[in-house]
TrEMBL record:
Membrane topology note: Multi-pass membrane protein
Tree of life domain: Bacteria
Protein name, as recorded: MFS transporter
Compartment(s): Cell membrane
Main location group: membrane
Entries under PANTHER family matching the protein: MAJOR FACILITATOR SUPERFAMILY MULTIDRUG TRANSPORTER MFSC (PTHR42718:SF9)
InterPro entries the UniProt entry points to: Carb-bd-like_fold, MFS, MFS_dom, MFS_trans_sf
UniProt organism field: Nocardioides malaquae
Domain (Major facilitator superfamily (MFS) profile): residue spans on this chain: 1-446
Length: 631
């Protein structure tokens, strides 16, 4: 909750920035932007470090930085130092995804759903409590009081974490991809600046175009860089898997709806009655009327957790997205009384709470246990993208569709009724699309259920896949650990040298199934008991396209054999040995053409074959081609 509050604490104070710091409102708005930017950049990096070096350790680091930032803000009137303080506060955004992964590690199974739902729901606290709280403190005591309170709360939480939160024994081995982290930070900075500042700078202005181009180029370089890395900063293969990818897409859409709830509703409530749609309430009153929405997200967490345990992640996410959609689509019909606006706004918060409870469960069920923090970090990054996009989209909508109203005796431009109607309609469509996307998330293999927790007892076994070849080859495969009855415990994607790590709940007998591209899978029975040496799994049977070439029943020695894809691309060539035999490593699945010939004498033969995941035998009897023309 403390971390979520940092995002919105200064929102009501943007109009007061010129008097506080002696600057313009536009420059002062960087106190909002830099927090979101720092959080977006830091989250994937800090969560990756949490998986590698300790989740509790990284939470303490993030909270320490937030404490330092709060103290700096409380003690300065320098804009540069205030921006530094807000950036430090933003770095703590990683606490939420790391905390969710700790809940999976430590809580009993029947409490994991509730814990995930409660921590996920705290995202709504920022909008629900941050706006009225900061306005009250500023009006009553002054600017510095906001951050003295923030510092006191953060210090208390830090001490409580040190005292009560255990360190998870689950670790992801390997080295940290520093170059990948730097390039990712550059790309995220460019993209988030475009989303956050595009409306202010102009979408076709020079800074926006240059930053957008820089972001596209950076990610175009970063993606293949990560795919070539044995130990990447972000495992793009896992991130692009269907359950993770679809969950992240739904996360962006639902978060846009949640964020837009405050961005659309507060100005709607504050708009003068003369506009035909507003209620003319004060900033403080509007913030208080939005409080039920944020509080409902937390109050509804037990129900969200129960739904997660009973229905699974996919159904829970669909229900939450549909509630968000319905609440927005009903807004144009329910804006005649304050209570109607509050009820529908609160309903949006409830829908978001249900959806947010499902997202981490879906993510953690689809990734290795040793990568839960970093995978949740990417999901949190997607939420940050959704928040920034909602903010930029709302600003663009309000700037495009305006009317005039009398405020303090003067006519000023304000968003028109059409702007709000379109905003509500778009958010309703986002919720509906999120529900459709969630419907395609697969539910097999445990995905969508609350992952089984380790309750702080999990151990990690290190292993290595060894290929049965003297040549060095990259290992592209997976390792799955199951109980003797076949129930999955964990899985891992080895690095290019075959090294992997698997988490298991207690000592005992397990089945380890290892696969690698081009090699037959192998299952081994393994007794795991704590401090064993590296477990090696040898894959000895290479998958091939193989066969013999004959001529009149005898081996065709030295025949040229060539293999093509069905579309004509050359994939390899060889010559037959003294038995007429040939062999190719098994290529990716598809249709291929295998052709053999004796160039000196002219005999040849070709066959079309279909490659799946098994070795393919292709025997060819050479024939002499005849080209006699008809008489």
């Amino acid at each position: 909750m403390a971390v979520a509050l940092q995002q919105t604490l200064v929102v009501p104070l943007v109009p007061h920035m010129p008097s506080i710091f002696g600057t313009t409102v536009d420059t002062g708005s960087w106190l909002l932007t830099i927090t979101l930017l720092a959080g977006a950049v830091a989250t994937p990096i800090v969560t990756k470090l949490a998986d590698m070096y300790g989740k509790r350790r990284m939470i303490m680091l993030a909270l320490s930085l937030m404490l330092a930032g709060s103290l700096l803000l409380a003690l300065t009137t320098s804009l540069a130092l205030a921006l530094t303080g807000r950036a430090l506060q933003g770095l703590a955004a990683a606490v939420i995804p790391i905390g969710i992964s700790i809940l999976r590690d430590e809580l009993p199974k029947e409490r994991v759903g509730f814990g995930i739902a409660l921590m996920s729901a705290t995202l709504g606290i920022g909008g629900g409590l941050g706006l009225p709280l900061s306005g009250f403190l500023y009006d009553s005591i002054g600017w510095a009081s906001i951050f003295w309170v923030s510092a006191a709360v953060t210090a208390t939480i830090l001490l409580a974490v040190m005292r009560f939160v255990p360190e998870s024994p689950v670790r992801s081995p390997g080295s940290f991809d520093l170059v990948g982290a730097v390039v990712l930070s550059m790309g995220l900075t460019a993209v988030m600046l475009v989303i956050s500042k595009g409306t202010v700078w102009g979408w076709v202005s020079t800074p926006t175009v240059l930053l957008a181009t820089a972001g596209v180029v950076t990610f175009a370089l970063w993606v293949p860089m990560q795919l070539r890395r044995s130990e990447p900063m972000v495992d793009l293969r896992t991130t692009a898997s269907r359950p993770v990818l679809l969950t992240n897409i739904a996360s962006v859409l639902v978060t846009m709806g949640m964020m837009a709830n405050g961005l659309l509703t507060i100005p709607f409530l504050e708009a003068p009655v003369s506009t035909g749609h507003g209620f003319g309430v004060s900033v403080m009153t509007a913030g208080l009327l939005m409080a039920p929405s944020g509080l409902a997200m937390v109050a509804f967490a037990p129900v969200s957790g129960l739904m997660l345990n009973r229905l699974g992640g996919r159904v829970t996410l669909i229900v939450g997205a549909l509630v968000v959609a319905v609440s927005y689509l009903a807004r144009p019909l329910g804006d005649e009384a304050l209570w109607q606006v509050v009820v529908l706004s609160t309903l949006t918060g409830l829908g978001a709470a249900i959806a947010f409870a499902a997202m981490p469960a879906l993510i953690m069920s689809a990734v290795p246990i040793t990568e839960t923090a970093s995978a949740n970090g990417i999901n949190s990054l997607m939420r940050a993208v959704g928040m920034a996009t909602a903010s930029a989209g709302t600003a663009a909508l309000f700037a495009t569709l305006t009317t005039t109203a009398v405020v303090d005796g003067a006519r000023v431009p304000v968003p028109s009724t059409e702007a709000y109607s379109i905003g509500f309609l778009l958010c309703g469509l986002f919720g509906a699309v999120a529900a459709v996307v969630a419907a395609f998330i697969p539910t097999g293999g445990g995905v969508g259920s609350v992952p089984e927790p380790g309750r702080g007892t999990e151990k990690v076994v290190a292993g290595r896949i060894v290929l049965g070849t003297p040549r060095h080859e990259q290992v592209l495969g997976t390792v799955v650990l199951t109980r003797p009855d076949g129930q999955q415990v964990d899985w891992a994607r080895p690095d290019f040298d075959g090294h992997f790590a698997l988490a298991y709940p207690h000592d005992g007998r397990y089945l380890m199934v290892a696969t690698a591209r081009g090699w037959a899978p192998r299952v081994t029975v393994t007794d795991l008991a704590g401090e064993e040496a590296v477990v090696e799994v040898v894959l000895a049977d290479r998958l091939t396209v193989h066969g013999t070439v004959t001529l009149q029943g005898a081996p065709a020695v030295g025949a040229t054999v060539t293999m093509f894809e069905g579309t004509g691309e050359h994939t390899g060539h060889t010559t037959t040995d003294d038995r007429g035999a040939f062999e190719f490593a098994l290529p990716p699945a598809g249709v291929y053409l295998v052709a053999a010939a004796l160039p000196e004498t002219g005999e040849s033969r070709a066959r079309k074959v279909t490659v799946t995941a098994e070795s393919v035998a292709v025997d060819l009897e050479l024939l002499r081609e005849t080209n006699d023309a008809p008489a």
